[in-house]
Fold each of these.
Amino acid sequence: MEKTTIQVSSDTLERLKMFKQHERDSYDVTLNILLDETEEDVLSEEEIEDIKIALEEVKRGEVYPIEDVARELGVKLE
């Protein structure tokens, strides 16, 4: 793997240190973990469209009480 040097401020370095899962982790490992988590949090266009549709359904009152859904699924609410 080719390595490179990046410049970060001392404040950024301190923040990065806080994100290390293990003290011996390299900053490369730490940055990749953070980047992977960030990529997972990004919604796809399809997910965004599904949310828009669901919000419209709620606005039109096309919803069911949670008790009805739980009963239908055989789930006991506490």
Amino acid sequence: MISLHTSPLDQPGTGDAGGMNVYVIELARRLARRDVAVDIFTRATSSTLDPIVEVDDNVLVRHVHAGPFEGLTKGELPAQLCVFAREVMRAEAGHLPGHYDAVHSHYWLSGQVGALARDRWGVPLVHSMHTMAKVKNESMATGDTPEPSARLLGEEQVVEAADVLIANTDIEAKQLINLYDADPGRVEVVHPGVDLSVFRPRLGARQRLGLPEEAQVLLFAGRIQPLKAPDVLLRAVAVLLDESPHLRSRLVVPVVGGPSGTGLAHPSALADLASELGLDDVVRFVPPVAQSVLADWCAAATLVAVPSYNESFGLVAVEAQATGTPVVGAAVGGLPTVIEDGVSGLLVDTHEPRDWAAALRRVVESPDLRERLAAGALEQARQFSWERTADRTLQVYSRAASLMREEVSVG
């Protein structure tokens, strides 16, 4: 696997680390349990990192030196692709020919390196986009920065080079075909999963987190950047309290995560907004936490809000539902696949604060609805597991190998 711009060992919720990091490491672990050895190549961001880290039986993370350890933005990484690719080639050269059976690249930067490895090693390339520039640029938050043309071109090249593209949802598959002219016969839908042994109903979660048992807890968990739209939640809470001031004494709005992406330019912007809206007494900012602690936050919440402008899947929505917590999410990207509207949560068609306030109110003020959604959330989450993801991904690897053999024989 190639995960160039962010390591699966990084803490999700800050910098460039998020759902993709969870995806890579969880998939690798499940593949390893199926007797598949996985090497994950990622760019070293510190001189103190060991060159090779064994994170599980048959799962190695290889830190590749490419460019300065710190200070490089994601936009500056294309200049390091040649150096990174050279070091990956060098690592493979230390093994007997045929050491690797397939390459699975994650995000377009990794796909560029994966395409070179495919041709050099004669093995199939499977690529997961995770996010797509054309989709992001179509659904930008106000004031956000569009993705550069270099990324659009790079993604088109990777789509053409890959033997098989993995899409998280049917919607993403259609986007690959319609926006990138991907061959429909080379696009496979494989849903990400959730670790149901970690994300489950958890007794005592509120006590462990210091939350009042009678509180209404509206949780946002994720990277703090315009794309994820935590500001929409805060503005909706301000409307909710303006219309129902009696809720203030029982309302807690935790924001779990750190600045990321364009949000790094103004890291205090969300806290400043909370102050402007008069929400300092209800909003709590919590640094990124480990998965086990995030599971506590999800289980402790009355609802989890996912107001993003775009989500290829929305992993946090599945994780929240697995703890028995309803999700109020934007009806964008993969979220309608993850959230069954009116059954496991509520979908909101706009990003208008009043529409979001109305959806929040429905859950907060109706215990019966909340109980029904909680039961539906648990049932919905059972459809997603990393074991199922790994089994389907292995099928995709086999199909990619067959397609490559056909291509060679025709050639």
Amino acid sequence: MSEQSKSHSTSPETLVYEIRVRGHLSDQWQSWFEGMIIELEADGTSRLYGSLADQVALHGLLRKVRDVGLPLISVNAVQ
């Protein structure tokens, strides 16, 4: 493995994600969704916004969305 590959594989890359779900979530869900900021949109959706350490964390968060039965609208990396 090259030095560049080693440094890239061991350095954490935090990305900011925006996840939209149908329905309005209360602030009580913020701790359940790993501290993501919850914003309520006028169109009846909720926007979960915040940084996650990696793809594993993203998939874990999406699993929680699925587990509580929230209809997923979109997932976007914004950084």
Amino acid sequence: MAAYESLKLEKGMYGTPGKTFTQVLESLDPSAGYAGTPLEGLDAYQRQLKRFGIRAGGPGSDRIEKFFQTGDSAALFPEYVARSVRQGIEMENLLPSLVAATTQIDSMDYRTIESVPAQDDKSLKPAAEGAALPQTSVRTKDHLVHLQKRGRMLVASYEALRFQRIDLFTVTLRQIGAYIARAQLSDAVDVLLNGDDGKTPAAAVAAAGAKPAYADMVALWGSLSPYRLNAMLASTPAMEDILNIAEFKDAQAGLNFQGTGKLFSPLGANLLHNPDMAAGKIIGLDKTCALEMVQAGGVQTDSDRLIDRQLERASVSVIAGFSRIFDDAVRVLTYGS
């Protein structure tokens, strides 16, 4: 009998400090041991699905009740929920295009660091022989990073779901993940605009007219120097304004947008659409040094409730916060006011 077929699965696997359910499984049944076998390419969780004959996707997916055929197989259900929600987050997630560093913590309190270089500090001048090198001061911020809990409550009885196909339920869970991703993006935008203390607005560049012109975009690009403008965030009305700037109506860029839906890159920056942003603002930043994401674990589920088929009022949530690293690496183009 293969190792994965004899594992005892239980609720306690979800409570291991610093480890996810899959990581606990991997420690008991390492994937490296399946190299060169038909199970190569499956992780420890996927091998457990195979063990119990649970088909979680595709036209022939099983019904949800298949998870609850035994006590061991029921322990797989919360991880299925968490993975489906993560898929939804990844499908909608713009944060990888904005975040310079992601910090994982195991508490609810986190104080990050900051460095506030003067203009003189941004250029490394020659140091005479024997002279002291210029200093870069790094210190702990005087406030904690504000962590937000984002999630949804599952409100449905097991009886209502037991005969539903798993892949259909996955669609609902992915939407929960998409909602979480959009909410976290709003949190990140708020920090970019107002700082992680809520009292430090990003420096603004005012447009000359009621709508942004090419000269305004160039001014935004120049205001970030010596940082690079490589990411831009805009609301739907702002995106329309940018797309209508004459200098950006390049035939090849338009063909790419019409054919693939991929937005062009004004001045070399990755243009990102955020429908929830306020109109009249375009955020420009250097994504390599502007924003830190702080996560307190991954997707959290009420594992006990889900294993015991108590889907009513079972929560799915993520705890995360954001901090500006270098304030000067963010600028906001304002217009229309």
